[in-house]
Amino acid sequence: MTADLALAALRASRRAEALERELLAVRVLRVEVEQMRAGLLLDRLDGWHAGAAENYAGRVREIRVAIAGAEHLVREAEGALVAALDHARRNGAPHWAS
Amino acid sequence: MGELSVRGGGSVSVETEALLAEAARLSTVAHILHGWAARACGIRDRLGELGPGELGPGLAGLAAGLRDLDTASAGFRAGEAECTALSWSLVASAGGYAAADWLATVGREAGTRLGAGLLGVVAPGLLLAGASASAIIAPGVVLGSLLAGPGAASAGLAALVEQHGLPILSDPAFVAMVRAAGGNLDEFLAGLFRSGGLFGVGAALDAPENAALLVGAASASGLVAGTRGLRETEVRVERRMTPRSAVSPFGPPASAPPHGVGDLAERIPAGPPGEPQIRIERYEGDDGPRWIVYSSGTVDFGVVPEREPYDSTSNLHSVADASASAGSVGLPPQPGAGERSVRAAMEAAGIAPGDPVLVVGHSAGGIIAANLAADPRLSVVGAVSFGGPVAQVPSGSTPVLSVEHAEDLVPATAGTGVAADGRLVVERSLGRLEPTLDDPLPAHALAAYRGTADAVDASEDPRLRDFARLVGDLTGGSPATTTEWHAERVPGAETLAPAAPGPIGASRADAPPGRSAS
After folding, report:
1. For B159-194, how does the pLDDT look when each residue is reduced to its tens digit (9 = 90+)?
2. Which of B62, B113, B175, B416 best tests the A interface by mutation, with the highest count of A CBs <10 A?
């Protein structure tokens, strides 16, 4: 019984550590996206035919939206991981261990 | 019907180095996005290995986090794909295979893919549904064929129409592709015509009239030449007394001045063969006469010149006259028969080189109007083209209003064209059309353009209002004296080189009967 509890606690602890590592990875990714996103793409190029420039700007806008959407989702995932980690710590990780 | 879209005809030049630099930047961005997608995916996989199936109710939110990471990864990958496609397009543009506007065509597919990626939807079938599905495929079929060579291209085009039917010719996406190709494939089209490829298309379709239309469209790009059938001839013009223009016992005929673009479109001659193709209105200004010249569109789509000067041969030469490649494909440096007819009629009507003139035309008449606007010997104060391939005419700062339908193939054959600060392009979509063998290009019809011209008059766009004011200033609101002119080719009188030009640039003084222009 004692051995089972000790094993469960160990597994919970290792999962919490793993969760913490992945939270850090998500956070690093989120910050990197956040910092780099603004300078990744040009708004428009000079010297183009007005129609072509607008079309190009439209496509760049789509990419911006895609990256912004992805960044938002990474932030959501980060929030979910934080909540999961808090929950695990608060409850001695019983759900992970069960 | 769609709303009007108005755009200027500014610079079209893009430095190759700038294109390549942006392509490199996009390629780098694609690489970064690939890395982000892989990292998001990796985190999700590792979290998944922790045992999501064993998560208790308190950690259920983590499952949503895993889905978020999954979707984020898809979003990064979609952005990566879009950047890669854009980068490739820029490299292709720099290589001369496509114009910058082609990005728009490629973008539709990639943009849809992008949306699908964000939503986590993988349903290629959906991308091919709807009215534009065939046109989404078109660039792959046709542009691929173009790069493969003329023979393959004609077969590709024939297969395209056979597979998708005539509506493909009126699909805005296909029209956009033609516009992109039209400006860059001079040599290809020249070779295609010499090889008889376009006639081959007609035979394959068993619809010679459609082939003739295609030839007309291709020849309107000004890039094909070399067959005997396209040799130019002299033309002559004579005034016709029609019920609208006949002199009555009470004096010369008078017509009210046009009050807008709609009125201009309404007055373009559109009679059957044998009827006048040119209408000229004279307005009396304080400083001398002012004029509005109206030119009909193509009357005869045949490629062998008969009596009608408004034919495909004329289209070819009119547009080629403004094309840098004209010399390289062996075209003599002279205007087409239709343009020479208009110039001869202008001289006969008494228009002097310094008189202010507004030129209006449909289809081939549109290219004539733009060519006259580009002629520094004339005092053209403005030109209006309905469905004419005018983009490649270097008309400079002279106001040229080009009215185009998104589904009209003909103006697209001019490609993305050259810069012209004074050119104003008004585009409108007519929506889904039902072409028939009798009317294979319904979006090109003058009747359709008359409807759009009325919409131009109703527009509040300040640039269009300025153009309407230009028309009002020219006429001064006074009635006009109207004359109508019929032009015809002079049989057997081939022109191999331009003759000495008259004041307007086309006539010979000793040319009876009527006015002759070579």
Report:
1. 555 555 656 666 666 566 555 444 433 323 333 333
2. B62
pLDDT tens digits, one per residue of A50-72: 556 677 788 888 888 889 999 99
Spell B400-439 as b/e; 16+ CB within 10 A means b: bbbbbbbbbbbbbbbbbbbbbebbbbbbbbbeebebeeee
Contacts of A30 in chain B (CB under 8 A): none
Q: Are strands B356-362 and B233-240 parallel, antiparallel or unpaired?
A: unpaired
Spatial separation of the C-alpha atoms in residues B169 and B200, rounded to whole Å: 17
CB contact under 8 A, A96 and B59: yes
Per-residue HEC secondary structure of B448-463 comes to HHHHHHHHHHHCCCHH
**ipTM of the complex, rounded to two decimals:** 0.89
Asked if A63's CB is within 8 angstroms of B64's CB, the reply is: no
**Which has the closest alpha carbon to B69: A46, A16, A75?**
A75
Q: Please provide the size of chain A in residues.
A: 98
Out of B46, B56, B86, name the one closest to residue A22 (CB).
B46
| pTM beyond 0.90, yes or no | no
User: To the nearest whole angstrom, how far is the Cα of B491 from the nearest Cα of chain A?
Assistant: 44
CB pairs under 8 A between A and B: 161
